[in-house]
Amino acid sequence: MDLDAIQAALRQLSLDGWLFYDHHHRDPIAYRVLGINPVMCTRRWYYLVPAKGEPAKLVHRIEKGNLDGLPGVRHEYSSWHEQREKLREMLRGTTSLAMEYSALNDIPYVGLVDAGTVELVRSFNVEVVSSADLVQLFEARWSPAALDSHLEAGKVVHAGIAGAFRAIAEAVRGGHTLTEYDVQQRLLEALSRGNVEGDEPPLVAVNAHCSDPHYSPTAATSQPIRPGDFVLLDVFGKKRQPGSVYFDVTWTGYVGEQVPDRYAAVFAVVKEARDAAISLVQSAMREQQALLGWQVDEAARAAIARHGYAEYFVHRTGHSIGEDVHGNGANMDNFETRDTRRIIPRTCFSIEPGIYLPDFGVRSEVNVYVEERDARVTGEIQQSVVPILAS
């Protein structure tokens, strides 16, 4: 835990403190920010980082070691009465605290504290505000080593995608049948050989399955891949080493030598939306202008709406990327939620607009890393649907 940095951020945000709380390991953010990992957490604990002064901790007497290693005065309790009174005393003099709370649950990745605990803190005449901006500062920013791991994972992911398209082409030319599941398993093998792993298998979809953004084949439900099919590959993973972060992209292809005009036209609209969002981020960073997550979503969504496909773009434009594939920084979202967090340097997110029609769907996904005065796409950028059987 970087106590000085947290306290400086609290003062900048005009907050009296940041109150961490957990019960039964419900708040992984707290453990990562504080740098602790108690084995057992069957009783509630609280840790207060004030904007100034010494932190304070409140732990149950039978789990009094849960916050060992953290600075601050330790208070102990046994009964619920004692817990409430000691928490009241610990918070005396504070008027505003950040917690892992999100008003109306707009940012569910951060909304981890239960409503009853928020009510308890508010009963002490303390205002509870969202820690979302603080979480982004201390959870979503990458180290140089994390960025390197992302770039290395990206090489493996892109090689796996190219290999998957080649495998489809070889199977079709040889008169063999590959299914969505077969391609998924080949992608998993390619990632594993490159020392890359994901929390879930890659998504491989054909035709109408591409219109389900989270479709994932199984051996029982998988569809064969044949000439004339439209194929979508969403591949993600991170290096098998501590502190690694994800790489997450989506590419599309057509099982033929020339991509039909309809597929090409829809891809062109998605590409326009993707590039509009990338351009907005790059311009804002270069000009040092404040940019919020929802504004990036609007840029992509407006491009798709201009072409009459607004109703077929059914998810946010992008998500934060970190040690989890869906990280805790700003999302590019004014659709599922309105993400008002500012896009800040050393964070990364996907930009992945899509159009999902009844018989096929197109998504083009890239990862954007934000630097101090610029932003860049960290991998290859698809410019057109891949003609899988083209020589």
What does this structure look like?
It is elongated and about 75 Å long. α8 runs antiparallel to α9. The protein contains 9 helices and 19 strands. The protein is an alpha+beta fold and 391 residues long. It folds into 2 domains: 137 residues, Creatinase/prolidase N-terminal domain (Creatine Amidinohydrolase, Chain A, domain 1); 246 residues, Alpha-Beta Complex (Creatine Amidinohydrolase), CATH 3.90.230.10.
CATH architecture of the largest domain: Alpha-Beta Complex
Radius of gyration: 24 Å
Mean pLDDT: 95
Sheet-strand content, in percent, reads 15-25%
The helix count comes to 9
Side by side, the strands of the main sheet go 4-3-2-1-5-6
Low-confidence stretches: none
